[in-house]
User: Which sequence fits this backbone?
């Protein structure tokens, strides 16, 4: 079993991912979706979150061996960044969606030295906007962003375009394609539902219209 399959199985087993092709969910953006991924659920399963930390550490060693600081995106990326930082014995920071309007008005919490090499951790990649914004904030603060990593990606075309435009790498433990294949294998969905899920990923904003 490869890494992508392993983590797809873990997300399905702890029900962090819900699949409902015939009665879609509605995202905050208004998009109708046959899948809902809530990786916050993994926090409640010690064995799963430990495997995620180890998996992210393996990604770090493979793609970002020079990483000096782990950055979590607020809020869902923070716990996984913390467990990863603990696994690798590295400093950690986290990045707010925007600067505070009180106190020191920080957007980045923790200590970031100019020139330090940073890897940004997100729980989930849909369009990539949150983690890209965090990476840009780190750059503006003087950090060098090596790239980004996350637990899961919907593999939306918009995300690929956004990361390419911003100039950041992204690596994930698992992805939409692998998860659907595993869901079929486990009997969670049938072949007709698989087709609906595949059609959605090609053009989410127009799905079901």
Assistant:
């Amino acid at each position: 079993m490869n890494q992508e399959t392993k983590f797809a199985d873990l997300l399905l087993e702890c029900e962090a991912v819900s699949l409902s092709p015939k009665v879609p969910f509605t995202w905050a953006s208004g998009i109708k979706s046959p899948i809902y991924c809530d990786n916050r659920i993994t926090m409640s399963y010690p064995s799963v979150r430990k495997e995620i930390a180890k998996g992210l550490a393996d990604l770090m060693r493979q793609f970002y061996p020079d990483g000096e600081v782990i950055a979590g995106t607020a809020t869902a990326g923070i716990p996984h960044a913390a467990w990863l930082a603990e696994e690798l014995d590295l400093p950690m920071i986290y990045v707010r969606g925007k600067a505070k309007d009180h106190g020191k008005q920080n957007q980045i919490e923790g200590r970031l030295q100019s020139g330090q090499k940073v890897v940004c951790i997100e729980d989930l990649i849909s369009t990539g906007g949150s983690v890209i914004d965090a990476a840009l904030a780190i750059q503006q603060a003087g950090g060098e962003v090596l790239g980004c990593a996350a637990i899961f990606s919907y593999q939306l075309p918009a995300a690929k375009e956004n990361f390419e435009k911003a100039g950041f790498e992204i690596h994930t433990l698992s992805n939409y394609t692998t998860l659907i294949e595993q869901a079929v294998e486990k009997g969670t969905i049938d072949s007709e539902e698989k087709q609906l899920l595949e059609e959605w990923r090609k053009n989410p904003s127009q799905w079901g219209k």
